User: Fold this.
Amino acid sequence: MVSKTTLKINYWAIIPILILSDILFSLLLSGNAVSGFVSIIYAIFFIYFYPNRDFKRIAFSWPMKIWALLTLYHLINATIKDVPVINISDYLHGFKIYASISIFAFLFRNNLKQSTYVLFCSLGIWLILAFSMSGFTDSGRLASVGGKGFNAVNFGKHAAIMAIAAIYYASASKKSFSLLLLHLSYPLVFILMSQTRNAFGMVILQLAGYFYSFVMRCKITFKNAVLIILLIIVANVGMDYVMENTGLGGRFQHDFDNAEAQYSSYQTGTFWDYIAGERIVYYVVGWEILNENPVTGIGLDNFQNYTKGNYPMHVEYMKHLAEGGIIAFLLYIGFIISLTLIIHRARISKEFKFLLISTLIVQLFSMFFSVSYKQPVPVILYSMILSVYNIKKEIINNPEKS
Assistant:
C-alpha cells in the first residue's frame, strides 16, 4: 500500500494539478489541444497509482467496467456513423473521464477528510482564476468574454462540486453546521453570479441529505431541537431572498411562468413543462430522434449537428438515448444501478450511507438539466460513491485508511 505520508503529498500535488490543468493549458493552447494535454496529465497519475491494489480494485470494479464499455460503445458508434466532430482526442478524453472517476474514488477511499479539503481549496482557486478570465452579460450573469474563459454552466458546476466537497469535509471532520455554512458561502456566491439553477438545486439537495444525517447523529435535547428549528427558519428565509431578490431567482421564475417564448412550440401542455422548463426542447427533439434511430441513436455529440446547430445537448438522459440509442441508455442505467448496489452493500454508518444516497440523488437530479458525461469535475460525484466499493472500514470515522 502507498504510505500515509506519501498520500498526504499526493493530495496537495495531484488534486490541484488535475483540477487546474484545463485553466493552465487554456492560457497557452486552445480547442482539442487543451483536452489532449489534460488527458495526458490524467493518464500519468492513473499510471502512478496503478500498482496499488486498492486502486486496481476500484478501477476494474463492475461499475467502472460498465462505464468503460459505455465510453467505448459511444466512441465506436460515433466513428461508424462518421460523426464529423469525433476524432482521436475524443478517445483520449474518454480515458480521462474514466481516470478521473477512478483516481478521486481512490483518494476519497484512503483519506476522505484530507481529499475533500484539498478538493475544496483547489476548486476555490479554479473559480478565482476562471473569474479573472471572464465577465458579465447584460443581464448580470457571469460568463465568458469574447469566446475566452468559461461559461456560466462551468462556473455553476465547479461551485456545486466545491460546496458538496465542503459538506463531506464537514461530515468527515465533524465540523459544526455554522462553520459549514461559512465554507458554503464562497461557492454560493459564484452560483448566484452565474445564475445556474441546476447547481443551486444540487447544493440544496446535498445540504438536505447532510441535514438529515446531522439530525440522525445528534442527541435529542432541547438545545439541538432549538438549533434545528432555527436552521429551518434560516433556510426558508434565505430561499425566499434568493427567489425574490437575485438574478438566479429571476431565472427560476421565468421557468415557472414558461416565459421562454423561443421554446413555446415544444411545450407538451403537461406538468412536465414546469419541471423541464426551457430544457423541454431537448426531451421533445431527443424523443423524436430516438423514434427514428431507436437502437444506436445518431452518434455521440451529433445532436447539435443533427438540429443544425440550434441545440447543443443539455440533458444527460437524452444524450445517451438520442445519441447512443437504447444500447447506450441501458449501459448507463446499469452503471447507476451498480452504484446503488455499492451503497446498499457498503459497511458504513447509516448517516454516511444516507449522505451517499443524497449524492446519487443530486447526480440523478442534475442530469435532468445538464450533461456531465464528458466533464472530469462533475463526475467526481460518482467517485464519492465508488470510494466505498467493498469497503471494510468505516471511512467517515476512520478517514485515514492506509
